[in-house]
């Protein structure tokens, strides 16, 4: 399964449905399910790190506009792309070694824990 690492507290906000747009300085043509993995750093009390937290559908990727700020939970910045995230599905969290960019995580790990 395709995955992306997101720093805390934003990873938790995505999984709670509070952040519906992830911003990056690069675009992707990928569309489909994306495993949200919380980065190991920074460590913030109450927010799990180094773990897969849930699955979202990446439905669009386009240049960010001012109207995206609320969903992105950040201000518009130069070169930002808005990754539209929908259909949050919770899983039993499990350890994942994060990587840069979009990467693959063995789907068997996800199947063993199952969607909640």
Written overview of the protein:
The protein is mainly beta and 116 residues long. It has a single domain, classed as Archaeosine Trna-guanine Transglycosylase, Chain: A, domain 4. 15% of the residues lie in helices and 40% in strands. The protein has a 6-stranded mixed beta sheet with strand order 2-5-4-3-1-6. The longest helix has 7 residues, at 107-113. The two termini are 17 Å apart.
- What percentage of the residues does DSSP assign to strands (E)? 35-45%
Task: Kindly name the structural category.
Answer: mainly beta
Q: What order do the SSEs take from the amino end to the carboxyl end, as H and E?
A: EHEEEHEEH
Helix proportion range: 10-25%
Please, how many helices? 3
Domain module tally:
1
**Rg measurement, Å:** 13 Å
- Looking at how many chains there are and whether they match, the oligomeric state comes to single chain
Anisotropy-based shape: globular
Q: If strands are numbered along the chain, what order do they take across the biggest sheet?
A: 2-5-4-3-1-6
CATH superfamily: Hypothetical protein
Unreliable segments (pLDDT under 50, ≥5 consecutive)?
A: none
- Rounded mean pLDDT is 92
CATH topology name: Archaeosine Trna-guanine Transglycosylase, Chain: A, domain 4
Main beta-sheet strand count, sense and barrel state: 6 strands, mixed
CA(first)-CA(last) distance = 17 Å
CATH class: Mainly Beta
